Amino acid sequence: MQVDGISSQPQLPQSEPRGSSSRIRKGTEEVGDSLELTPEASDVHELAEAARTAPEASSARIDELRERVRSSYYNSPQVRQQIAASMLEAGAMRDVGADSARVHGAREELQSVPDTRSESVQQAAARVREGFYEDAAVRQEIAKRVLDTLT
After folding, report:
1. Taking a C-beta distance cutoff of 8 angstroms, is the pair 22, 34 a contact?
2. Of 60, 114, 117, 133, which one has the fewest beta carbons inside 10 Å?
């Protein structure tokens, strides 16, 4: 509901300077309301004001981009190639290329790792249960093989 002559925006009195409080001041009989904004609230207010006063060009650009997405403009192979070329020229893909090379190297290393054979695992488990690896000569042989593999 709107009443003529009365604004729908609440009006806050600002008769007191910032930082004053709504308490009775010592030595006076004045009582007043005040509004203190936290730094975060002031930042939000400034950002909101900046958004309201931003040039219409950015809003028009956003609308243009939304329309391109809706119309499947970016699904075109030519557009995708242009975007990829721009990203490469800007160096945006350098890290991705390095990561891709590391992944490729890891895959090659993985190919050289022998598959685990369940019968070998079962044999080793049986030897552990039987105490086979408790023998000093067996331990010596295992240590030698491990060292040979590492060097």
Report:
1. yes
2. 114
Q: Where are the alpha helices (DSSP H) in the chain?
A: 39-52, 56-70, 77-89, 94-112, 118-130, 136-150
Q: Each residue of 128-146: b (16+ CB within 10 Å) or e? A: eeeeeeeeeeeeeeeeeee
The gap between the terminal CA atoms of the chain, to the nearest Å, is: 87
Q: Choose the final residue of a domain: 25, 46, 75.
A: 75
Same domain, yes or no, for 91 and 67? Answer: no
Closest by Cα among 53, 57, 52, 15 to 34: 15
| pTM of the entire predicted model | 0.27
Query: Structural domain tally of the chain?
Result: 2
Query: For the segment 73-131, what is each residue's pLDDT rounded down to a tens digit?
Result: 999 999 999 988 888 888 777 777 788 888 888 988 888 887 778 888 999 999 999 99
Tokens of 121: 């695992």
Domain of 67, in residue numbers? 38-75
